[in-house]
Specification:
The chain has 379 residues and is of the alpha+beta class. The protein contains 15 helices and eleven strands.
Length: 379
């Protein structure tokens, strides 16, 4: 019919149909055929670009929703929405709604956590358990006393990073080493943690990370990770360290190097004869992986030499932790806390450790260095 080459089946069909229209053969010319082919190809390219832009926009919006950056409101709005749904379902009367909302507003105004998801006594309970049970453990190292915080109605689905920071602060506030840099501080609420991270960014910490959130966390449901924890601790003059286990270091995608690092953290003098249960003055460790974070409060070493992390999970409800406090239910509760190497199968993990107080000069140096913030990579 002609010598024009079409780029795809749709363009070819349209071109053939134009040739078959009455009078098309008489009016056709090589030049007009070529122009038509170019026009059809341009139209097809425009459609392809529009489709790619649509898919890209949908993926971006999905990521924004996933990471809480879609403008859907933050802690306060989510808590109010859940209270309203409870009223609509008949689970709460309007008087209770207004009472609970007033309590929440008072707590948020104070900037302190209301303590409703806080469980104390987890570390003493672990110590009691190991003193009478788990004789297959050669050694157990426990962090300094740390409270458990779980997600509430206001941050369920996105607040794990904030809750793990609360766990770490609950420990630091009780250690004399940090008293000078954390005077008269109480464990902050989730929105207050967001404002503290924003203040850290305003000091110049981690500008790259700040730009990812458009320098704003308050009023959002944004997930935070290891770099935000580092920035906040540094702003509070706590010496922090990020260790990145960026790939598996053992068979079956396990991370034995991570377990060894945690052992060295809790027991730096491994050559010395250690008692079976060691109560350290070390703060817990913030443990991050894709999509979730938890708090490492200790380590078991079996008689076989195998290592097991002891982890408090903010996704676990307070009722689970309270089971640990009872001698009858402690063995079952401990199974939810233990993590062996086979239980950590994500490709990448990051740890954040608090390692003492910073002087003002050290803090300024770290602020400057955070412009190109890099974690220590192992292996």
């Amino acid at each position: 019919m002609c010598s024009v080459v079409c780029s795809d089946g749709v363009s070819l069909q349209e071109h053939v149909e134009l040739h078959l229209e009455p009078g098309a053969a008489a009016n056709a010319s090589p030049g007009s055929d070529l122009e038509l082919a170019h026009r059809l190809q341009d139209e097809e390219e425009e459609r392809r670009k529009e489709e790619e832009a649509r898919v890209e926009k949908e993926q971006f919006q999905k990521l924004q929703r996933q990471f809480g950056l879609d403008g859907g409101g933050g802690y306060r709005k989510q808590a109010e929405q859940r209270l309203e749904r409870a009223v609509a379902r008949g689970l709460m009367d309007p008087a209770q709604f207004h009472c609970k909302r007033a309590e929440m507003m008072e707590s948020l105004a104070s900037g302190q956590d209301d303590g409703k998801t806080r469980t104390t006594g987890a570390l003493p309970a672990l110590s009691r358990f190991y003193q009478s049970e788990a004789r297959d453990c050669a050694h157990v190292w426990l962090s300094a006393d740390t409270d458990h915080f779980c997600s509430s109605e206001g941050d369920r689905g996105w607040g794990c990073g904030y809750r793990n920071l609360q766990m770490m602060l609950s420990c630091l506030l009780g250690l004399e080493e940090y008293a000078a840099v954390l005077p008269d501080m109480a464990v902050p609420s989730v929105p207050r943690v967001q404002s503290l991270i924003e203040a850290a960014w305003s000091e110049g910490l981690d500008p790259h990370g700040a730009s990812h959130f458009n320098r704003r966390l308050q009023g959002t449901r944004a997930w935070i990770g290891a770099t935000e924890i580092y920035s906040l601790l540094t702003s509070l003059r706590v010496r922090a360290r990020i260790v990145d286990f960026h790939q598996p270091s053992g068979p079956a995608d396990t991370h034995p190097r991570l377990f060894q690092w945690v052992r060295q953290y809790f027991c730096p003098n491994s050559s010395r004869l250690q008692p079976r249960i060691v109560h350290t003055k070390k703060p817990p460790l913030y443990l991050q992986h894709q999509g979730h974070s938890r708090t490492v409060v200790g380590l078991e070493q079996k008689r076989s030499g195998a290592l097991c992390l002891l982890i408090l999970d903010p996704a676990a409800p307070s009722s689970d932790l309270r089971r640990l406090l009872s001698p009858d239910s402690a063995p079952a509760a401990l199974r939810q806390i233990r993590r062996f190497p086979s239980g950590l199968k994500h490709r990448q993990y990051q740890l954040v450790a608090a390692e003492g107080a910073l002087s003002e000069q050290d803090k300024r140096t770290r602020v400057l260095n955070s412009r190109s913030l890099r974690a220590e990579r192992i292996p």
